[in-house]
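Look over both lines before class:
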Amino acid sequence: MIPSYFRLDDRDAYGRWRESRLARAPRDVGDLVVEVGDIAALSGAELAALRDRLGRCNMAVYAERPKPGRDDKAALKSLGARLGLATLDANALADDDGITPLAVHREGQRARYIPYTERPITWHTDGYYNPPERIVRALLLHCAGKAAEGGANRLMDHEMLYILLRDQDPELIRVLMQPDAMTIPGNDEEGLTRPATVGPVFSVNADGSLHMRYTARSRNVVWSEAAAPAAAAIRRLLDGPSPHIFEHVLEPGQGLVSNNPLHTREPFKDDPASPRLLYRARYHERIS
């Protein structure tokens, strides 16, 4: 059931929800950070602090001291389980355990894809090309090695973008919730074949929370005629200055826990002697 504040005909409910969201929104990236001892063994207070940030803006940044020799992938899966996450989205380039190591590849299959290069990645939510039965609702990142230069992430709560768009014109929300708003054409490359996916940008999960499926790429995406102006409005909001967009470079021992908000990755320079390495876990559940 769609909550009343997401129904375009209920202005009063939306107004109350909007006021609450804006009042609780973080003011800077420092408001997102939670110091923890060990992500594989969170205390009750640490878990509550992460959930507090998630409740305010769908994301939190944890900071622990780097632990040389630890299995960071196993620790990340333990963190996911503590947050109530169970079903990893095992995409084709993930390791056998369902977690993807993001590092620069100079050759091989991964080298053909931007996440495994030093190039920037524009605004998106993870899994925007997935079919409806494999929606990515939660995203965890853990930094094991920092780039020599650059590599910051920009982050924006998708609920905040929803508010900005609806305040501008509720019709933008209506067309972005249509089932044919955004199409990602199929991929026929060897080893990564997938069909075209068609779906809305904004949708409501079974628990009443808001989900966003989006990419700012200009290639390999097709907008419906009705949604094209709304897509342009999104780009204007994301490309302009905003107090709701945060930028952060993850340090070793830091990571992101999130309900798959909008994010980017800035270009970076890699040092092969001390390479950038992030572990990524995508889940079909949402962190409640």
